[in-house]
Design goal:
The chain is about 25% helix and about 20% strand. It is an alpha/beta fold and about 140 residues long. The chain has one domain.
Amino acid sequence: MAYSYNPQELEQSVTLRVPGGLSRKDVPEFLSFVLASRGFTTVRTPGSPVISVVKMEAAAGLARASKDAGDSGGAAFVTQVVKTKHQTPKALVEAIKGALSKTGGSVAALGESSYLIISDLGPRVDESLRSAGASENTGNWKPSP
């Protein structure tokens, strides 16, 4: 996995003490946690083979859109377009908004269609959609190794 970042923005060092070590498949999840705790996240921009580390508040405008959070391309932050099933998108916007990250998370109805566009860390997107009963595309987010 190739990562791109601005070294001036990520000057802090981090020490992880993990009992039993850390496997390669666990690294993306730990990286996501550490970055989020410092106001950063990872995104995959449209058409790019590289994961970019960006400030959380800029992530929604950079992340590629997908139809489910499992299509994150290894990025922690996702923009997902979902078709609602039992409620109108406008009604769900208010229900979902409170479950998203205060910095970077967003949700909006797409015009008069039955679709929502929701952006946040993958697990938050899944959790908010699941708790609101908003979509069939929930519970799919897994960071790629």
